[in-house]
Write a structure and sequence with these properties.
heterodimer, A: about 280 residues, MetI-like fold, B: alpha/beta, 6-stranded mixed β-sheet, 4-stranded antiparallel β-sheet, about 25% strand
């Protein structure tokens, strides 16, 4: 019996792991090919992409911006709004979803209202929230919050409800109190869904914040600098700088990618048991 | 892996003083979409303290309903179940209180995937306030070692084989020092080779712990190999059709399977089981 145990105990060491793993190489090639096609399409005035400035020109516009404070301030503004809206959505959404999952009464009382409000797109809230909230800053953050809130609640609720009943029965028969069951079964059992909900919610916050900034005029006093990346794009459009529009778009893509990557990393960290699959 | 011959073969119920289950005239009716269903009807069965009692019956016959009633997961609609003379459930109290004296090992396993094997095993005594995590981990390590589970303590259940998981789960149940172990087809999903290893592992654990085992299975060979007695249940509504005393002495090992006595016991029961299986099949029973 011991031989069986010993071989199962330690996973075999993986064969030599280099930095240039296949997926990294493929990613680099994929981006390079995309840029080349874009450049060609743009230079050759191909239909649809013909009017988009080519990547080399965009780079020429981008490089000086990298040392421009206003550009980075836009990054900072948008990121701050995304982060505060997102954190608020987590802080309110997770307990809210858990309460709905664990209390029949709370669920029955809140769910109808929640379900009526949920289909209202966050952007439809922009005018109302500008009226409700004292500052434009708060109204943008509120709309951002809404973007992530519904997704997080729905995921938490679904996740908590889909926990296998046998886990509850096992915990019960081993003498767990209700609090233990909440803390040691419901919470860890819901964690994977919280991670998924957060990742999806984070994506939505970036979509929402940019649009909210465009509509509300960036909540800035000094146009063009304090408005965030959404306003940066809008301002570039008004100013007729197509290159800057593309710079703004790529910036959002990069920002969104890194936010998601960060969340994925955090998610793996808090759910170590899922890594083994 | 033969059990040491020095281990004495204690006839069921003579050395163990705890863990006798008395099931008396139990009824269980529940309401499904197609109307009222009588899952268990007038079922009486005495399980002796310290014996391995195997419950064999066709799919959906209500065996698990009985187990759930003993464990306290579901109520009963008639009769009484008592453990060592204490009433678990009856007319006044249709649902038993789940407790660490009757721990279940589930069909598909219910180790908490977010806890390591060691934390899973240590879980019970901490929940009952009997030990701190440190004490429980210490004891868990010892019990896992006794069951041949060395080197997997810090793995998650998802990282070890399904046979290993089953063993961890049985050890987790035993950590609670239960009077009765309720096993609901625990080896169903295992391949036959792993199954045979698990049977001997279970017997080894049993010889060390001498706890009453209520073991549900479909597998007649498994039932006769492990059990002191085999209760063959009728198809729904469930009650004992035939109770077989397996007079092959414990400790047993796999050589028993080829013995003439084993074969004749198989022959004696296979018809009874087949009869019920056909009835269940014709009634179109589905798994519950």
């Amino acid at each position: 019996m011991s031989a069986v145990v010993a071989s199962a105990a330690r996973p075999r060491p993986r064969p030599g792991k280099s930095i240039f793993r296949h997926h990294v190489v493929r990613a680099v090639i994929s981006i390079a090919v995309f840029l080349v096609l874009w450049e060609l399409g743009s230079r050759l005035k191909a239909p649809w992409v013909g009017d988009v400035p080519p990547p080399t020109v965009v780079m020429n516009t981008w490089l000086p911006l990298l040392t421009d404070q206003g550009y980075w301030y836009s990054w900072y503004q948008s990121s701050r709004r995304v982060l505060s809206g997102f954190l608020a959505a987590m802080l309110i959404g997770i307990p809210f979803g858990l309460a709905m999952a664990t209390s029949r009464f709370f669920h029955d009382v809140t769910f109808p209202v929640f379900e009526i409000l949920r289909p209202v797109p966050p952007l439809a809230w922009v005018p109302a929230s500008i009226i409700f909230w004292p500052t434009q800053e708060l109204s943008i953050t509120f709309v951002t919050f809404l973007g992530a809130f519904y997704t997080i609640v729905i995921n938490v609720l679904g996740g908590a409800r889909s926990i296998d009943v046998r886990y509850f029965q096992a915990a019960q028969s081993m003498g767990s109190s209700s609090w233990d069951i909440f803390r040691r079964i419901i919470l860890p059992g819901t964690l994977p869904s919280i991670v998924v909900g957060s990742a999806v919610g984070m994506g939505i916050t970036w979509e929402v914040v940019v649009a909210a900034e465009m509509i509300s005029g960036g909540g800035s006093q000094a146009a063009g600098t304090g408005g965030g990346l959404g306003f940066f794009i809008w301002n570039s459009y008004v100013g007729g700088s197509y290159e800057q529009i593309v710079v703004g778009m790529i910036s959002i893509g990069v920002a969104g990618y890194f936010s998601s990557e960060l969340l994925r990393w955090l998610g793996k960290y808090v759910t170590p048991w899922l890594r083994v699959r | 892996m033969n059990a040491p011959s020095s281990m004495r073969s204690a006839p069921a119920g003579q050395h163990a003083s705890k863990g006798a289950i008395r099931i008396q005239n139990v009824d269980k009716m529940y309401y499904a979409r197609e109307g009222a269903v009588q899952a268990v009807s007038d079922c009486s069965l005495d399980i002796r303290a310290g014996e391995i009692c195997m419950i064999v019956g066709p799919s959906g016959c209500g065996k698990t309903t009985l187990l759930n009633a003993i464990a306290g997961f579901h109520d009963i609609t008639g009769g009484t179940i008592s453990l060592d003379g204490e009433l678990l459930c009856g007319p006044e109290k249709p649902k038993a209180e789940p407790g660490p004296d009757r721990v279940v090992v589930f069909q598909n396993g219910a180790l908490f995937p977010w806890k390591t094997n060691l934390e899973n095993v240590a879980f019970g005594p901490v929940m009952q306030g009997k030990m701190t995590w440190a004490q429980a981990r210490e004891k868990a390590r010892g019990m896992m070692a006794d069951a041949g589970l060395v080197g997997v303590e810090h793995n998650y259940p998802g990282e070890v084989s399904s046979g290993m998981r089953r063993r961890v789960e049985i050890v987790r149940a035993l950590m609670n020092d239960p009077k009765v172990l309720l096993l609901d087809e625990p080896f169903r999903a295992l391949d036959s080779l792993t199954k045979s290893v698990m049977h001997e592992a279970l017997l080894e654990i049993y010889y060390k712990n001498k706890v009453t085992i209520f073991f549900i299975t479909h597998d007649l060979e498994e039932a006769i190999f492990l059990g002191h007695r085999v209760a063959i249940m009728t198809t729904r509504p469930c009650k004992p059709k035939k109770i077989l005393e397996v007079d092959i002495p414990h400790p047993r090992n796999y050589s028993v399977l080829t013995s003439p006595r084993f074969r004749s016991l198989m022959e004696e029961t296979v018809n009874a089981v087949h009869e019920e299986a056909v009835k269940a099949f014709e009634a179109g029973e589905k798994e519950m």
